[in-house]
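Input protein
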Amino acid sequence: MKKKTTIYSVSQVNSLIKTALEENLPSRLAVAGEITDWVVARSGHAYFSLKDENALLPCVMWKSKFGKVKFDVENGQAVVVRGHIDVYSPQGKYQFHAESMVPEGVGALQLAFEQMVKKLHAEGLFDEKHKKNLPAYPRRIGIVTSESGAAVHDITDSIFNRWPCAELLLYPVPVQGEGAADEIAAAIRNINRRNKRLKLDLLIVGRGGGSMEDLWAFNEEVLARAIFDSEIPVISAVGHEVDTTVADLVADKRASTPTKAGVVAVPDVEEVLAAFENNEARLRGHIEGRVRLAEQNLETVLAREVLRNPMSLIATAEQRLDELDRDLGDVIRLLLEEGRGKLSQYREQIARIEPHRLIGRMKIELNNLRNRASVGLGRIANEGRIRLSQIESTLSGLKKAIITERILSLTVAENRLAGLNPKAVLERGDSITTKINGSVVRRLADVEVGDLIVTELSGDERVQSKVTSKKDRGEKAGKQTLMWD
């Protein structure tokens, strides 16, 4: 008897494959390969493949796992992925479920740091032109760090040792772990929003030393942009001498350690006091020198005659005024004498000329000229009137001749037009017949039976008729007769 064949559904086959893979493959695998077909869905899950020279492995990385990857993943990167193989039953295909991912040959955090530095440098966040100057003598300083770490004590001790007059305000924040960068950035933005009331001159952001993982919050983009956007100058004081973070690069000033932050932030009070004393001595010496010079100038001025006997200056001026008065009187008398002499000379010259006789002669000559002008003008006027009369006579004759000639021409033209008038024949007993549309009836073919016609007679009289018949008369002779009512 033939054994009955078992028939499986598609889902059962995929389930068998999944079970076989789970039973025969390690529960966890580490796979090295090159990223290809990298896609991040809107859900936050990442889909990609790992490839080598001979094969391709489909992979998926869920959002919860992908969020822990510190560096930017790109096609072509060589990575090591850890996870397990599973079967995606709806499509009957196996895929690798990645739970972690690190770059091959370089640490994930180091790669992420290099990527972030490259990105922010390209945007200009590290440019010197954006960095703000620190105040020379800050009074109120904000410190953004952990309240339980050693860094806060290092910062405050170094500031108070150098600048005891400073007022320090601590803003406690977590400085490592997930979410630390967001909280530090939020604190910086909050302080800037409230600074009209806080009146901070400076901000110090930092923490003590640690591993790269411990310092990672100071390498995240959210904190870098908060420092860049801060209107208050920011000093970054993170880790040890050898540690360099993104916060150090974007801050307005970097302190290599929290202790050095005080050196960067505030001046040394001893140096400031020494400078004040030096300036005071220089200022005192300068003032004393100016006073001595002023005293010498005063002594010189007091030694002058005008100050020892001030009335002598007035007396001298009065004497000079008297001298000027005498000189002015002399000049006036001299000018008057000269004027009288010239006036006498002019009077003698006028007397020699005898102006009354000259005037009489000029009057006679003027009368003669007036008479001659009157006679000449009369003669010219008479000649003009005669000439004008002659011209008027000539023009009158020409005008009459032209008018007569124009009248004769118009008469001839009128006669010609009258001869050409088609209605002139009406006065001789003839008539003109037209159709109702105004066209002239010249021959029998111009009308049809039933047409309306108008016969125009003399005296602008008209007769309207209707054609009842057309009749030829003497066809051989070429005559036709039109009959109408």
Remarks:
- The chain has four domains: 10-105, 112-267, 268-307, 426-484.
- The chain has 13 helices and 14 strands.
